[in-house]
Amino acid sequence: MTTRPHDGDARTAGLRELDELAAGLSPLPGLSGAAYATGHAAFEARSTQRAMLTSWLRDHLSRRTGDMSVLSVGCGDGTVDAALATTLAADTGRVVRYGGLDPHAASAGRFLAAVGVVGGVEVSAAVGRAEELPDGPAYDVVICLHSIYYVKDLGRTVRALVERLAPGGEVIIGVAPRGDLNVLAATLAPEVDGSRQWWAEDLAEQLVVAELQAERVSLHGRLHLDDCLDPCDPTGREVLDFAVQAVLPDSLRLPVLDHLISLRLPGPGLVLDHPVDVVVVPGR
User: Residue 73 falls within a domain, yes or no?
Assistant: First the structure.
C-alpha cells in the first residue's frame, strides 16, 4: 500500500484522485439497512465518541430539575437513551417521560426494550423520520443525535423540532462537521431519497436563516482503525463502507485507506480525530 505524507497538500491530492476515480463510475450503491446497522456497530466500537456524547448529555441534562419529558429523534437501539434515562430517573420523585422515534421498526423495538427496563420511566416509541414528527405532546428536551444528515429540508426539520418544545425546553442536535474524515462521505456517498447529506456547517447556516439562537460545543472522540488496514478483511470492509456511506468498489478501497492514513494523529497506531458538534437550541 502506498501511504501519503501527512500534510494538507497530500490530503488535497488524495481527494482529487478519489474524485477522478469515482468520476468514472456510476453513483456508488448506498448501504442496505442491514449493512448500515452492521457497519455502524463496527464503526462505533472503534470510537470513543459515543461515550463522550453520553457523558456530556448526562451532565447537561442532570442540571434540570422536576419532572421531565424527552423525545429522542433517530433513537436507534436506545443505548445512549437508556444511560440518559437512568441518570434522570435517579432523581427520586421525578417523573420521566421518554419517547423514541426511528425510521426502522426494529430499532424502535430495541429502544423500547433498552429504555423500558429503567425503573421510574414512562417509555414509548414510534416509527418515523425526523421530518415526520407524529402528533403528540410537547417535550422539555428533544435530542437528535446523528439523525439529520438526510432529511429533505434541514431548515424546516429544525423548526419543527423547536416547535415541539414545551416552555423552557431545548433541542439538542449532535451532527458531524464536514471535515477531513467526513469529506469521504461528502465526496462519495450517494443521495438518499433524492437528498444530499447535511453537515454541522449547513445546520449553522439554517439556524441563522431561522433566526434561532444556539450554543455549540465541539467534542473530539478518537477513532481506532488499526484492525481495518486490510481491505480484504470483512470487518475492515464494513468499516470503510460505513465511513463513506456507500458500498465501495475494490478500485476505491486503497485510495480511501490512503486518505485515512493521511489523517493519522501523532502517536502509535492508526488513530483519527472523530469530532461531533453538539448544538443546543432553546425554544422561542
Answer: yes
What pLDDT score was predicted for residue 2?
33
> Which residue matches cell numbers 481506532?
224
C-alpha closest to that of 59 among 92, 91, 84, 81: 84
Contact 18, 235 (CB under 8 A): no
**pLDDT at res. 130:** 87
Please state whether 278 falls in left (phi above 0), alpha (psi between -120 and 50) or beta: beta
Residue 120 in contact with residue 106, Cβ under 8 Å? no
Give φ, ψ of 192 to 5 degrees: -115, 120
Q: Write out the residue range of the structural domain in which residue 131 sits.
A: 8-279
Residue 254: pLDDT band (50, 70, 90) is confident
Q: What is the pLDDT averaged over residues 45-52?
A: 96
Residue 23 lies in a domain: yes
Q: Give the pairing type, strands 271-282 and 215-224.
A: antiparallel
Query: What nine digits make up the cell of 11?
Result: 490530503
Beta strand 96-102 pairing with 121-127: parallel
Nine cell digits for residue 153: 429540508
Here the CATH number for the domain that contains residue 132 is 3.40.50.150
Q: Give me the phi and psi of 121, to 5 degrees please.
A: -120, 130
| pTM across the whole model | 0.90
DSSP-derived pairing of the beta strands 139-145 and 96-102: unpaired
